[in-house]
Structures are given as C-alpha cells and as structure tokens.
Write a structure and sequence with these properties.
- The complex is a heterodimer of chains A (753) and B (415).
- Chain A has 23 helices and 34 strands.
- With 753 residues, chain A is of the alpha/beta class.
- Chain B is an alpha+beta fold and 415 residues long.
- In chain B, helix 3 runs parallel beside helix 9, helix 13 crosses helix 14 and helix 14 runs antiparallel to helix 15.
- In chain B, 38% of the residues are buried.
- The chains are: A alpha/beta (753), B alpha+beta (415).
- At the A-B interface, helix 17 and strand 23 of A face helix 5 and helix 8 of B.
Chain lengths: 753, 415
Amino acid sequence: MNRKQTLETLIHDLKQDENIAHWHEIEPEPAKMREMPESLDHRIQSALRERGIEQLYTHQYDAYNEVQNGNSIVAVTPTASGKTLCYNLPVLQSIAEDENSRALYLFPTKALAQDQRSELTEIIDDMGIDIKSYTYDGDTSPNIRQVVRKAGHIVITNPDMLHSAILPHHTKWVSLFENLKYIVIDELHTYKGVFGSHVANVIRRLKRICNFYGSDPIFVCTSATIANPKDLAEQLTEKPMSLIENNGAPRGRKHFVFYNPPIVNQPLNIRKSATVEVNRIAKDFLKNKIQTIVFAKSRVRVEIILSHLQELVKKDIGPKSIRGYRGGYLPKQRREIERGLRSGDIMGVVSTNALELGVDIGQLQVCVMTGYPGSVASTWQQAGRAGRRQEESLIIMVAGSTPIDQYIVQHPEYFFERPPESARINPDNLVILVDHVKCAAYELPFKQNDRFGSMEIEDILEYLAEENLLHHKGDKYYWMNDSFPAHNISLRSASQENVVIIDQSNVADHIVIGEMDRFSAMTLLHDEAIYLHQGIQYQVEELDWDEKKAYVRQVDVEYFTDANLAVSLKVLEEDKLSEHDSTTVGFGDVTVNAMPTIFKKIKLSTFENIGSGPIHLPEEELHTTSTWVSLKEDKDQLGTKTMEQILSGISNVIKHVVPVLVMCDQNDVHVVPQIKATHNNLPTIFLYDRYPGGIGLSDELYKRFEELVTSAENLIRNCPCEDGCPACIGTEHEASNAKELSMRLLRRLMEER
Amino acid sequence: MSLKAKLNRMKKHINTDEKKEEVKAVEPTLTVPHLEKWTSLDSEPFFFDDEYAIVRKKTYPKDHQHGRYVFNELERVIQRWNNFHRAHPLSSKNLNPSDLLFFDTETTGLGGGVGNTIFLLGYCQYTNEGISMNQYFLPGPGREVPMYKAFLDDVQHLKNLVTYNGKAFDWPQVKTRHTLIREQVPKLPQFGHFDLLHGARRFWKNEMESVRLSNVEQQKLDFIRKEDTPGYLAPMLYFEFVKDPDPDLISSVMKHNEEDILSLITLYIHMSNLLLDNRGHHLSAMEQFQSARWWEAVGEDDHAASLYQLSIDGKYDRDAKKALAKIHKKQGDLAKSLPIWIELSEDTNDEESDIELAKYYEHKEKDYEQALHHALLGYQKWKSKKRILKDKAEAERIQYMKRIERLEQKEARRR
C-alpha cells in the first residue's frame, strides 16, 4: 500500500490543476483570550475547567460583561467559536444568583433545540446546581408539560411553538413570564424574509405578555456573519443592541479554492457534472485519512455522493467511516455521527446545509461544496466547518452549471471582497401584521392608543372590530370570536390560505409534507409539475384547487418543470421614482394578476426543453411591492419583436442575479418583462416580491439598482457561450448579436443614472 | 425625548387622578340596559369597581322532579357513600350535600386558550331551603372582575366541584381567565372535583354514539328538554348580545346552562346508585361489568371480585371470569385462578388463559410438558385470529416463539 500523503502535499498537487479558477489564502490568526470574569459563580468556573476551559475568548468575555451590565446583545460568531457560552454564561450566572430566574431559548428548528439541551445539561450537571432545562415542542409529552411550565428554569423552544402553544396559553406560564430575565435567540440570521417578519411579530407579542406580567427581559442573540446583524436584531426585538464581533477564536491558514469543471460541449456551454468532480476530489482526501466534509444541496444528492464515496474508498478506510448527515435522520443517529466526527472515528461526512447550523462536530480539515450554496453568508458558514486551530485547512467550491455558480467562479472578487448579504425582514407587512394583531388581541385586550411593538395599530383594531373579530368597548378592544387565531397562521408563509402538499407515495399512509401559498402553488404545484421538497423530487398528480390540496408522489426524473405565467401588472402607487434621460426607475405598490398558461419540462443537466403541457387554473391576484424600470425611448432601434426578446433575455439574467444580491430564494422575487406596461405604455421590467404586501426585497433592489444592472451585464459578458445560452439570456433570439444588444441596453440603464 | 413626547407619556398619570374623582360621582348612576327584562328573568346587577355583572338566582324545591329523579334523593345517596367503607373517586364520604358545587360554564369558543372568554358561570347547591341555582353572567367584555368577584364570594365555603368534562375544560379555563384579573378578585378556592364525564364513558361509551350530556340525559336520566338551544349556538348568541345587550338574546343560553347543572345533580345520584348497587338489581349487564372494572381500577379488588361474580353466566361471563382469575392471581390465590383458566382454556378460544396456564405450569409446577401444551394451544388460538397492527402482531408472535422454544428446551433437558 502506498504511503499516505499529507494535506500539504495534496494542496501542493491541487495547485497544479488546470481547472482551478481561483486560489485564495486566508492568513492564520492566534487566539485572543481573557481571564474568567471574577463575578462568575465559582461553580460555573469549575464546571468550565472540568471541560478544559481555563480562559474565555474575547467575544465570550465581552458578551458576558455586556449582559451583566443589563444590555441586550447580538454576538456575531463564526462556526465553532464557542458561541453557546455567549448566552449560557450570563443565563447560568443569573440562575446561580437567584433560582427564581427564568430564561427562554429560541432556536429556529426543533432539532437544534434538542441538540442544545443535551449540551446545556452536561454543563449544568458539572456545576452541581439544580437548574432545570427543558425543551418544549410538539414532542414534549403531556405529563411533563406541566413541570416545564411551572418549574423549568430554562425553556428551550422554537418560534412556531411560542406562537401557537405558549403565547395563546400564557396564563399557564405565569412563573416563566413573571421571572423572565433572558430571551436567547440563536441563529439570528435564519430569521429573514417572511419567516423573520412573522417571528418579529411573535416577539412583539412575547414582549407584550412579559410586560403584562411585569418582566422586561434582556435579549441575547447570536448570529452567523451577515452584513447587518445589529440592525436585524434591533428590528426583530425592537430593543437597542450592543454588537459583539471581536471574535477571539484562533484560526489556522485557510485555502479557499474555486474549482470549475471543464467544458464538455462548447456551443451549449455544458460543463462536466459537479457531483462527479466532487466525488473524485473528496476521494483523494479521504483515502489519505484527511477528515473531510462534503456539502450537497439536496438530500438526494447527499445520498448519491455518499454511496459513490463509500464505494470509492471502502478498500482504504472502510465504508463505515464515511457517513451522511441530513434532516430526516433520527436524533440518536445524528448524535452518533457528531460524536464520531469529534473523536475522529468518522473520516468523512456528506451533508445538506443541516450542518451549516450550530451543531458541534469539531473542526475538519477539508470542506468540499457541491455548487455555490446560494449566498455569501451560507458559503462562509459551510467553509467554517474546515479549519483547525493550528493546522492548515482547505475549502473547495466545485461550481455547478447554473448562472449563479458560473458568475461566482468568474468573479471571485465578488465573493471575497464584498460583505455577506444583509438579512431583511418587514415586520410591518400588513398581511403579517394583521395576523399577529389578531393573535395578540386573543392573548390580551388592546387599549386604545396601545402600540404593537413600535407600530400604531388603531386603524387595524378598528378594521378588526368592523370585521367582528374584536369588540370595541370603552377604551379597549376585546377578542370576540369563537376561533383560535394562531392555528390558522403559519410562520413560514405570508398568506393564510395555503395549499397543503400531500405525499401519497405510500398508499396506506398519506402524509402532509408541506404547504405553499396559493400564488406560488400555481406555478410550482400544477398538475404534472415536478416539485422539489428538501431535495426529493415529487410529481404532482392532482392539484385540487377548490380544496387547496396538492397530491404528489415521489419520482426520480432527470428534468424539472418551469411554468409560464401570463402576468398583468398594474401600478397602484408610485412611492419612489427616478427619471433619467431615456429610462425611468420606480418603486411602489402593484397589483399582479396572474394566470399560468403552460409548463415546460427542462432537462436538469443541460437546461434543454424536452416537453410541455397546458395548465388549467383560474386567475389569481396579488398585491405587493415592486421595482420597475421602463425604457422611454428605443435608442438602439431594436423594433418591438427584438425588444421583447431582449427584455425577456435580460429578465432571465436578472432573475439569477437577484438572489445573489439580496440573499433570498430564487422564488422570492419574480422578474417580469412587459413590452407595454399598463401604467405608462413603455417597455418595462418589473421585479416584485412574491409575498402579499412585500417583504422588502424589491425595495432593496431599488436602492441597489445599479449594482444589479452591473452584475447582470457582467454575467452576460463572462458567459463563454457564443450568442446566448440557457445559463444567460436564453436561446430564443432572432437577432444575431443578442448578447451584445442585451449588454448595450443594460449599460444604457446604468450610464444614464 | 422631546417635551411633547414626555408630556404624552405623563398624560396617563395626570388623567387617572381626574378620572377617579369623576367615576366616583358617576357610580350610582351606572345604568344597566334592559334592567326590567333582567329582573323578570330572576336577575339583578352586581356592582363592583365601577362595573357590573348580572347575577341570576333561583330556588327549586327539594322534591322537584327532574327526569327520573327527585332532587332530595341526593341526601340518601350521600348518606350511602358515608356508610360505605370503600374508597372511590366519586365517593362523597365526609361531605354534606351542601358541600357540592354542580358547575358548568358557557364560553365564546372551543378549546383552551387565553382568548376563550367564559361569559356564564353557573352552579347549583343543595341547601336547606331547596336547590339554589346561581348564574353569573358577563354583560360585556372587560367586566370579568365583578363577575368573578360575585361568583367567588358565593362559593368560598363550598368544597367539591361536580362537572361534566370540567377537569379538562371548564375549571382550567376558569383558572386561565382568573389569572388575567388575579390581582383584583379573591383567590380561586382549592376544590375537590368529581368529573362525571369519566364515569359516563366507562358505563356507556359502548352503547351510545356519543356520551355528551344531552344524550345521557335523554337515555339514562329520562329528562327531555323543551325548546333547548344547543350549546354550540351559545357563542354566536353571545356575540349578538354584546352588540345589542337585549337579555332576550341570551336568556335561552342561560336556560340551557341551568338545565345542564340541574341534570348534573341527578346524574350524580344516578351514577352513585350504579356504583353502590352491590346486588346488581338495577344495572344493565354492561353497567354491572363496568362497575366491577371501575372498582378494580381504583384498587378495591375484593369488592370488584364480588361484583364480577354477578356478571358470571351473563353477557360478560368470560370477561368477568378472566378478571376474577386475574384478581385471585394478584392476591396470590392461584388455587382459585387455576380452575377458571382451565375452564376458559377448554371452553373458549381465549389464548390468554393458556398463556397463564403455561406460566403456571412452567414456574409453579415445573411441569414443562403441560406448560408446553398450553403454550402451543395458546399459539394456535392466537394464530386463528386476525390482527390489524402488524408491528404489534410480530412482537406478540416472537413472544410466543420464545416461550415455546424455552419450554421445549426445558422439557428436553428433563428427559
């Protein structure tokens, strides 16, 4: 058998690879430590020493001090920098001082909550203080719920549970709310978009109830690196925040490499599959017993890569030392894998973004990403999984063939030089706000002139009274309806009447796997659509529009579906407008009337159109916010037909650029070209938020319009195709120089500003 | 902060002082809409803290007939509980008839949750003067303080709730709403609690489509309501009332609640009669068997055994015998269990008796041949039955196989 190669030699070899698009090195950093604060209870100190912690990192130390001084904080902490101590220290300290103190921990998912509980109990056991911590979620058995409510010092839950099970029953939680000192919000960066906007309102309700019981808790938040942690935390909690970002955790030298698979079909610009390349690259490391994590975008991909790798290296290290990790594994299995990774018994792990979040698996040596993870922030999160304190580590992003991936590998500066994305929420979205005002009124009556968080809501209260949900008497508004409002409101979506997705793969056991708002369902859940749920492909067998149910069955096909939506847009109100020589850029409220017409089947690997079919659904209406750009003059003499094609090509590119720019899902913003917009009769491109009322994405796009246009132009210029391909402006162009015309148009939009 | 904003914040404080003075002057003139109508409904307002609630009181004579029972039979039933030495969750031993609080509520919604408002609290008490029926009605949101104040003042000396599903619903909901105003009204007393729904389920769930109170009233208590407003309409009627406070809108709901709590008295009498009937003269076969099961479940094995005896040769013959054998076994009296098991093993396809016999012969008699015989016989009987749950069936099959295998080895070793 050959001698094992070291990571160093492998890195050296890799540098010679011609498919390396970019090589970036990050210098090592030593640890920055502080002595344990003297005020820290000696039992906590000794419990920490027990676990080998003699000193604190600077960010842990500062977090503790800030909170001790009574300030709410948000601590920005990279992966594996000991962030849990940022909140556990002050919380444990306060319970050690006064055993009546209570704390509420919020984690975005049930699984993370359970992970944290086991870590917390270990420390508590070492401390030798009787501190009771419990998870409270759908799995908590009824007989222990009583105990949790009355005697739990630390209650660990998720926002959905807080919304539908705790707040509407707050009278059962008197001892928690009366004594609530701290609210911990972990993984703050996950509270963005519609979900974040909902959670901000749940927190308004939470604060209202705390106020009723006379408590005023301090918020302790932790977040991965995003551009606006302080803003997000302040928007979410409506409390002034101190930002803790002096990360003191040490770091070894890191190599960050972009790898672009070779082109195998020049005219169509098709590259070798990223998955195949990932298998090959990961194998080299695993064979040499170098601990490696591979990220894949879906559960299916995880399983495919896993089986390949296990096969490839079974002679060298044995298949058991490579494991998969994704949602759907049992907690016990996951714990076992995490332990194996920490101890080094497990050499490799293939994971979905499940391991992006704060699960403790120690530090690995190599991280391989199958495709660009979709945002700068989550790329850094995944990259953070590699990097031991003293040693070198390597991160390889293997680009896929999508426009975003190709844009990133061709513009490494875009990735390395810009700050990660901002996470945005819009808690005052009217639809979301009204939903939570209802819930809040159910929980406690509103007084006239009461604010809801920072919002004045007199109009909403009057409206709800007119709708017979509230009763206005004296200076108060009382809930006066027989329903339980929280049950009809899901935090993960903005419109109430959702389509429920039912998997009927197992004839004897139909299960609900998800839900989707109506508007999206038209294009994603129509009959015969391929619906991807957590990476698994399903085909829609029937969409029952009246009953709002989509029946799906698991399939394994090589294509996805893309529905055409006949859209008409009406501008209701122009909030912002900037006029230029030959263009107008606007932002405001719009009504979107949409009717799906046909869908296309598009091959996954090549984006070829391989079939189509009609969709029969009624028209839908959506009120939302939009940014638009209109061309006042056809300076390039394109003519209507060419103009239409160019606009649609540009829209296609913008659609891909938007998620990269504003950190959202590709479906969150729709991009629609209109050759003659109804409000001004001009050729116009609309970019609108897909959620009723808007969630602030198009507003952001208005502000960053120039950046958006530049990125779009860059993407077209750097696409190696000859004159349009599915990865840029598409192929349906009659003009012979479509790429050039598109770029000229885009430049016009910029230069004139 | 600007001065204006500060002033705005202070405004509240300044105003409160003024208000208090004003309100004091206003109090006596606080008007109750439709007062005459309320009076004609045996009701009057109860004033407290500048607000009022409606209190309705009525007395029924002790010899009033309500369905098949006369109310004063309650005295005799409680006397019987007091004379009976065995413990039961429905036993009113050491209680007087007047200690009981037959209680029910009407709410604006279903299920628990802070926003589900109780707008009517009703209870009956057995007193020297007769049956006192008391209702506390919320004339509008925000008036819960006078409603709970009036109610709590009246019930402080009572000891035990009697409800229908009150353990899971009514009383927790009272606690919930009380928590919201806990600083302004007396504390909730610690009551004992008889929830008759549990008993109704035990006795009648197999014969009734639903054991809701109206069904039980009709089928067991011979009480037929005239012009009843079903409970599910109550929230709607109340919402109407809140907009237009005309007592006519709500009087039918109050009548409904009144009949509910009166029925609770006769239901308690009826259920006690079933439980205290030691000879089985007035019980259906099902009630007879279920009474024994209930006494067994609360740990009164001897008493349960004597009641099971009454079911033998009846419709529940086999079940009663099995239960009897089990009690004997639990009491260490295998000599009594054995003939029952043998009988069941020979006469029925009940495999459990064979398992019991297999255990008995294996562990007590060390007669592995007999034990194996019954293990195999039990397995045959088990196999002949259809099963719905696959997992459970597989687990059971493995159990059988293990037992048979073990017995075969023991048997072989002996030879």
